[in-house]
Queue: 2 jobs
Job 1
Amino acid sequence: MIWDKPWIYGPFAWVFHQHVTLWGTVVAQGVIVSHLVWLLARVLGRATAWRHVAVCAALALLTAAPWSVALVMPDILTPVAVLCAALLGWGWDRLGRAERAWLILLGSVATAAHLSNLPVIFALVVLAAMLRAGGGAVLRVAVPLAGAVSLLLGTNLVGHGRLALSPYGSTFLLARLIADGPGARTIAARCPESGWYLCAFAGRLATNSDVFLWMPDSPVNRAPDGTPIFLGGMILAPEASAIIAETLRREPLAVMRNGLANFVAQLRRNQIGDTLSRHDMGMSAGSEIAKGFPSAELARFEASLQGRDALKPIGRMFNPLFSIVLLLATPLVLLAWRRAHRTRDPRALGLLLCLLVGLTGNALATGALSMPHHRYQARVVWLLPLAAMMFWPRPRRAQLLSRQSSASATKAGTAKTTSAIGSSCITE
């Protein structure tokens, strides 16, 4: 366990790689996403083998989905959490018992894997309440959130001795407030009488939250006299909480305004490229693989495009195509939203809005609480093309067959009821 991340994704990845090869985790992530896409199609009454293959192929070729699936990081679990909550809320009656249990377990782990997922899934709970989907639907959407909270509280109690969702998360929010300005102004206004450690750096704090958190010469990692600080982010957390509280008291409107600006910036940043260079992976990736995996795995890592720092230029070549696909998908999704609202189809409307709220909620959570990065939105933006494909009107023939099937089922039910009534009358 480390101070800055939940102890969730590591065990999740271990289940599939078993210290043999990281490709096990990558393949498992791909299978999980494919299965959720299949369940979504089945709940909507559109599941066929060829259609599923076509949808997955389109996602693989035309969206950023496979780039997030292939990251051995919790990024792909954000859309997984959204899909699990959506299916539990609006597809419960079309799922088997084993599928329901699987979605609850998977949704809980996925929601807990990254702290920004908690507000995203909470937004889906609020959505279910606003749509008046019923108390059962609201509770079902909330189950993965409750499971995630339990996982985080339990693991942090065992690993850090603190019953908290994020024992040291205040350091991240402080970095954001300092970079935006209000936090830095609070430190300048309250120093030196406050006695804060950061008073020694007042007036020269970094305007980039990543620099503040991770650079070796930042106040988090190096004392004023130049002495390196081990686990500085964890040590700074209590002071960070005090500065955050004071900042919110002094400049609440500025904090809200900056949060909205970061939200908009995050919405616009959705291309692949982050984490694709060797530098982005961090200098310790190779040594960690060497410690926990066979030498052949390290050799594959070193020989890969990413290991040779040749993957990022290739990845960026796809960004123009992905942007065009997003532009084309947007009006189709808006038309689908209008159609579901006009036809009063609560299932389609609820599922569609879940995907859209997942997109916007992710941008708000990551932009306002951390720092806008392309990777954060790229991990979920493929839900928009998915929605366009899933909710596009079926051909007339398919619609006619569906209506005939429904009519047949209705007639069969009516005949059965009539027979039962007749039998009852004869008995009496």
Job 2
Amino acid sequence: MTAPEQGPPHEGRPVQRVPTGSGGQYAYLITGHAEAREVFMDPRLSKDTVRFFADRPSNRALHPAFTRNMLASDPPAHTRHRRVATPLFTTGRVRELRPYITHVVDELMTTWRPGAQIDLVAELAVPLPVTVICELLGVPEPDRTALAAWSHDLFDATDTARIDAASHRIGDYLTHLLDTASPAANPLLRACEEGGLDRSETVSLAALLLVAGHETTTHLLGNAVLALLQHPEASDRLRRAPDRIPGALDELLRFDSPVSVATFRHSTEDLRVGGVDIPAGFPVLIAPGAANRDPAAFPDPQRLDLDRDATAHLAFGHGIHRCPGAPLARAEAEIALRALLTRFPDIRLTLPTDSLTWRRTRLTHGLAALPVTLA
């Protein structure tokens, strides 16, 4: 299976009308960097999925936690949720978490030995962010593997029934967890109560943080390691100067974004983007992976260049819906890459690059597995 498209805007067209399925339905796909930034900020594009589908028949049966959350709402509802979520991931809060993240990385690598062959996705990229976000949410250790599996199913691109079932497993589990938790012992529950969120809103925020808090970070880690293994000069450079890893993350995020297509938006008014008229009432899809390869924004975009100023990348989104967990994702990636590069300086791919498999998902871009030989 080949990787999902992460290249520059198709044929130089930053805005395209694309089919979305049978029945002649279509949406507008934004692949240009400037156009994506513009659309991310445009209040005429709504994220209220309930509003969009209110008069459109659907056979989907997602748990309400996934249809009415922070990513599927507009201000003022979005503002209330964001006000609760943001303090959980401030730079200061993440700084406090760094010793715990380091401990988790050390524990995951404790049995690794030079010469061993491992799947870096299964043994590092998945368990690290799952462990950290579950710790923040107060999920007991015995339940974390099941939650990770349900979250994996939630991103399946081939089976909507499987997606819907996974959403209910996660929503029902988190409802029970929060109903039986003490606010004094659960920072999220305490923050939600102080922020005035009711129980259904608290469950929806917990579900969003659980899924978004590890799925994209898993792909960030896998994609970044693959990029470095494919560019040994960049890998050697960071190995010799690991303090440069935080600065290199922007280019690694730009080069191979963990998000192919941002979550759902629709136009509430007629608008014009990139010279294309978008009528009211149509889905608008933003493709950060393609926008991050737009040569108008990043010259020679197919080249990994650690000296490039890539801070304008859109891997975490832009505007009011920019990922609040970005500081945590960056910290996890930095700590994991530092440990990997310094402990195993000659790590190498076990398989040829064209033999690697990529997950089939609707929104994200990441490896199903990354077999490597430690050295």
